[in-house]
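Researcher: Go.
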Amino acid sequence: MIKILFILVAIFTISGADNINIDAMVDKAEKSHKHVLIFLHKPNCSYCETMIEFTLPDKKIVQNIKKNFIFVDIDIGDSGYVTFEDFKGTKQEFAISIGYNFYPSSIFIDENREIVYAKPGYKDEDEFLHILRFVQSRSYEKMSIEDFK
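Model: Structure:
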């Protein structure tokens, strides 16, 4: 259990913070030529908990996220606010405002503050790694994920 917590802390850029400024994360991502990966989840969600316990701590997932993404963990049950462009509100209101009020959801934002890819629902390690590679390679600009090998 300690190992899992250590791994999660290592990959979470923002975790448990009261207020989250997505714009600042996008600025940071732009400077390092990365995407922002927002992981939306909620308390008492078995699919969310399974991703947190098994998918996210996977060694290949951790390495890929650390190298290619700015990771933002948003638990909609936590207090605090999210700011993103003209939006400022609770974490749950943020999820609703971007159209992803389904948990867990993985949202990818580029340097232009555009959602370039989003995938709601539980993903196992292989599926999630495939998604990370798809976004990191910017393949979303020219093909669907179904065509990405």
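Model: The chain has a mean pLDDT of 90.
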